Amino acid sequence: MVNNITIDRLRQAIDTIIAKHAIFRASLDWNINTNVLVQYIQQFNYRNQYEFVISYVENDEEITKIINREITSSKLFDRNRGIVLRCHIIKYNSTRKDEEICLQNNDIIIFNLHHIAFDGASRRIFFSDVKYNLENDSTLINNENQFQYIDYSVYEKQMDIISSYHFWQSHLDGLNFERRIILPFDRHRLLTDQHSGFAHLIDIPFDNDLIHSFLDYASSQDITPFQLGLIIFYTFLYKLSHNQNDLCISCIHANRYRTELQNLIGMFVATLPHRIQIHPTYSFNHLIKQVQNEFYSILEHTNYPLQQILQDLDYKHSSATFLNILFDFITYSSDTDLLSVNQTQFQPVPLKQMQNVVKFDMKLLFFHDPTVQNQTISCSLICSQDVFDSETVEELSKQFQHLLSQLNESKEIQQTIFRRLPNIKNEGPASYAQSRIWLDERIRFDPDKAQVAIYNMPFLYRLHSKHTLSTTELYHALQLIVKKHQSLRTSIIFDDETNQIIQRIIDINDRTRKLFTFIESTFETDEDLNKIMSDEKCNSQLFHLDQGLVFR
């Protein structure tokens, strides 16, 4: 990065953020009289409300040591005093040691936040505020009446959750909370044993073919990428456990279910049990629908806290077996990070060489960035060193990659079948879908009488005020589209000789045939406009399938 940000300027930016977001000044204390954990908002105390550390290093080994400490040390935060944010600057081969110096190339900034005050969705808000404060001399406007995380904490205790209570009772009915999913563990430990936190991590690559196969398959099945990832993970666990059919794992939900929560820094994430009961005779398509239905049902009840779920089911331990296997699908955008401030460029530092930590026996993470030109997907399998050896995790990752590759194989089969057929020119049988629509219009309605159209699909647009568009250019653009896509110039005809409904593509060079309809109308009142739009939607005489006029 180029050097135009001083350390003091960075501190001022963080000061402003601490003042704006009260969650960064919230201390937590157990009230022994009420047996309730209470948060207290501390008055803003200039630069004593967070940790700001500067380290000077001479080699990469020292940098790695510092970063590992930031990741693994349990002594960095003080929740009793509301210290939940740290900024650690690592200066590389620097001779000056004062706060007026600028950040230089190869310097590293570590923003470290305690999860009790911060979740994944908070990241965009935090870095947006950092960027704003560094780029502007004026500070963020802090409104004392601004809705804060502590207000949400009060509201959530007042919500009517009786329907959620009944849902979770039903969803987990009959589940044995102490029955593990049978995985190829190298070691076993009791549910009450402490986790060391250390883990083996293996990145599972997605090449372009696999990315397209994954997204195409999700689209073809009308499911989200999250749901497809979850389905694949369930299938993976089902195979590993030798067809154990009652699977319950943990899934992460953002839980920002109201618009007021979208731009609020805080901890909203809910870790909730997802349970699926797989019958060995069910098809994969049945599993897809099963998981989709389960997912949407749970989505309505993510605000119901995990500790309440366990309490309702009279489960005394916080170590239910489903808490040891976690799935998460993180959809993110690269612009949620601090990438540039004025002319200063930042680059995220990969943590692959750092110490891996996990509080679960097994954790599967998907990462999806749909905002870049070529969408990216990656996957990480993270397994606890307490129960798995590195060789076992390697083998597990290979098995999971094999499962993923079957999506690729499915795509290859489709590519083999669906290709341009040399013996098909401009005429062929109508598809089943075309035949259904063609027959539907004739069976349900009398073509000789006025009727309401059932298959018109109008898409209505209007230009913004003061904007113009050449109708000549529009006509030319539409002409090119009709020439490119044959279905937009295909006639549907009943062939008496073969007793079949056939489709016939209109030759673009046939000057005697109109390829599509292009009409210009004028209106003076909203009533005139509504009449035109209603006609486009309801008039059954606008198209002529036998002439290939299916586009206006």
From TrEMBL:
What single Pfam family name could you report for this chain, choosing any that match? Answer: Condensation
Give the source's domain of life in one word: Eukaryota
Query: Could you state one GO biological process linked to this protein?
Result: amino acid activation for nonribosomal peptide biosynthetic process
What GO molecular functions are on record for this protein?
catalytic activity; phosphopantetheine binding
Domain named Condensation: residues: 3-409
In the UniProt record, which is one GO cellular component term?
cytoplasm
Could you tell me what this protein is called? Answer: Condensation domain-containing protein
